[in-house]
Specification:
- The protein is an alpha+beta fold and about 100 residues long.
- The chain has one domain: Alpha-Beta Plaits (2-Layer Sandwich).
- The chain has 2 helices and 4 strands.
- The protein has helices spanning about 15-20, 55-70; strands spanning about 5-10, 35-40, 45-50, 85-90.
- The protein has a 4-stranded antiparallel sheet with strand order 2-3-1-4.
- The longest helix has 18 residues, at about 55-70.
- It is globular, with a radius of gyration of 13 Å.
Length: about 100
């Protein structure tokens, strides 16, 4: 069953290139990740969308994802009301359009 995760980021002004570079060149090649995309959703906002073969694969990759996050954490702004630096969700596909 395919599982997706979506992580929202707000990048500090002028740090967009460094944020994207933190994911390039295999730095975000997490075990079990089938495909990863980063989309720009606003002036300083981005979403990472990951495709995984299973929830177990996603859970197993969390330490590696946190290690990547730690490498660029200083580039991010707090997203407000309890969301912190990242706003992440994940789940299984329930309808494929």
């Amino acid at each position: 069953m395919t599982v997706y995760n979506v992580v929202k980021f707000k990048v500090k002004p002028g740090e967009e290139t460094a944020f994207l570079d933190a994911h390039r060149g295999g730095k975000a090649k997490w075990p079990g990740l089938e495909r990863g995309l980063i989309i720009k959703t606003g002036e300083q906002t981005f979403c990472l969308i990951g495709t995984w073969s299973s929830q177990e694969a996603l859970v197993a990759a969390r330490p590696a994802m946190i290690k990547t996050l730690d490498s660029f954490r200083s580039l991010l702004e707090d997203q407000g009301p309890g969301r912190g630096l990242t706003d992440a969700v994940s789940g299984a596909v329930v309808l494929d359009l």
